[in-house]
UniProtKB/TrEMBL annotation:
GO molecular function, one term: ATP binding
Domain of life assignment: Bacteria
Keyword terms, alphabetized: ATP-binding, Nucleotide-binding
Gene Ontology biological-process annotations: negative regulation of cell division
Coiled coil spans: none
GO cellular component: cytoplasmic side of plasma membrane; cytosol
Annotated InterPro entries: CheY-like_superfamily, P-loop_NTPase, ParA/MinD_ATPase
Keyword Chaperone: no
Gene3D superfamilies the UniProt entry points to: 3.40.50.2300, P-loop containing nucleotide triphosphate hydrolases
Name of the molecule in the record: Pilus assembly protein CpaE
């Protein structure tokens, strides 16, 4: 809950109070997977939790069921009175109401999941709760300086990850008035500076060649200013000069960004994720940018799986870009079923807006403030800021009506269709 942090002492790592057996059947295997005792998944909802915790220590992470509560907000306040400071609370319920969701977050709840529960949604919520509980806490305002680091990763080349990265960075600086650093890690072919109508300079290549030089003064001199609140570090290295680094320079840059800026946006090509996985060690949010194709669905699955294993502290956000109504290779429902989670945001395809931005030498968001795609970008920016604050600003994800639907089924469907077309000819 929203109370000053204090050491956990001998508190249990986890406890849950759930109203129905169906939800318990989903929760128990996930709890075991995370190393918790299944006996800590108790039958009974929020009122049972209040009664139990009034006479015993509250756990580090608490999951409570609001389904049988007639006044969830009032009952949550009663729960806060018996919860020890530092407890991270995940609520579940069956009321799909954005206002209730926001009110619950404002009251100190970390997350709210809709029934029926899915194992993947429960696992993600509890992993994030663990990361929140384990994060350093301090009453010293200097050491508690707020910073959000976001990595933008494209599942395929050309899906528009760099367009998202530059637009989000510009929005953080211009619309939210947050000092923002944009780090374009496509060393040879990056377009971050180009999208801002800037020369990339030699700052990033100098940093890679001389990591020991990286400090606050280096950052101040090497970064190219787009405006008062946005600076970029990028490169246009010769294509006959391979990247020779162990990644130490990138980690040092991230550390300096945390001291000098409120926001860091990293445009991260897939090969950098593979070669330097430690780059995500201090990233708060990962925006996985994709398109509605079979290849992109396959690689979205692979990247999300990699994030669960290697960066479970980071909050993943899936964005489908360049979406044309009725023109996708696979449907949104099939795509979501194959990746076993919802797409968080859908950005419509708008070639005229993209062309306009290129002609003006501006980011997509700056050049097209009234477009539908920019409206979605604003929502993504709000979600990232909310995620960094431990809050959310959107409706809880709904479970796909299709249930389990894997990528092999999609591929088989496509092959069958191609075969039938060939016979028809």
């Amino acid at each position: 809950m929203n109370a000053p942090f204090k050491p956990a002492g001998n508190r249990d790592p986890f406890a849950a109070y759930i109203c129905d057996e169906t939800s318990l059947d989903v929760l128990r295997p996930v709890a075991i997977e995370l190393g918790w005792q299944p006996e800590k998944c108790n039958k009974g909802g929020l009122r049972n939790a209040i009664q139990s915790l009034s006479v015993s220590a509250s756990p580090n992470i608490l999951m409570v069921d609001l389904s049988e509560s007639g006044d969830p907000l009032n009952d949550i306040n009663a729960l806060a009175e018996v919860c020890e400071p530092g407890t991270v609370v995940v609520a579940i319920g069956q009321v799909n109401d954005v206002r209730l969701y926001r009110d619950l977050l404002a009251s100190g709840i970390h997350d709210y999941l809709l029934k029926p529960l899915s194992a993947s949604a429960v696992r993600d919520a509890l992993n994030q709760a663990q990361a929140v509980f384990a994060a350093p806490k301090s009453n010293d305002p200097d050491s508690a300086k707020h910073h959000i680091s976001t990595a933008i990763i494209g599942t395929r080349g050309g899906v528009g990850a760099s367009t998202l990265a530059t637009s989000l960075a510009w929005m953080f600086g211009d619309k939210h008035n947050l000092p923002t650093a944009l780090l374009d890690l496509d060393i040879h072919f990056g377009t971050g500076a180009l999208a801002l109508d800037l020369e990339p300079g030699r700052g990033l290549t100098d940093a890679i060649d001389n990591p020991s030089r990286i400090d606050g003064l280096f950052i101040e001199r090497a970064m190219i200013r787009a405006n008062d609140n946005l600076a970029i570090l990028s490169a246009e290295a010769p294509i006959n000069a391979p990247l020779m680094t162990d990644g130490a320079a990138f980690l040092q840059l991230e550390e300096e960004f945390r001291q000098a800026f409120s926001m860091t946006v990293i445009d991260m090509p897939r090969n950098m994720l593979i070669n330097f996985p430690h780059l995500l060690s201090d990233v708060n949010v990962v925006v996985v940018t994709t398109e509605m194709t079979l290849a992109a669905a396959r690689d979205t699955i692979r990247i999300l799986s990699w994030l669960k294993t290697n960066a479970m502290h980071a909050i993943p956000i899936v964005v489908a870009n360049k979406v044309q109504s009725g023109a996708g290779e696979i449907s949104k429902a099939d795509f979501e079923a194959s990746i076993e989670r919802d797409i968080d945001f859908v950005m419509p395809y708008d070639i005229k807006a993209a062309t306009n931005a290129a002609k003006l030498g501006q980011t997509f968001a700056e050049a097209n403030s009234g477009s539908k795609a920019t409206a979605v970008l604003r929502q993504i920016a709000d979600r990232i800021i909310g995620a960094g604050d431990g809050e959310g600003d959107s409706e809880p994800a709904k479970k796909s009506l299709l249930g389990s639907f894997d990528i092999k089924s999609l591929l088989a469907k496509k092959d069958k269709g191609a075969s039938e077309a060939a016979h028809a000819e």
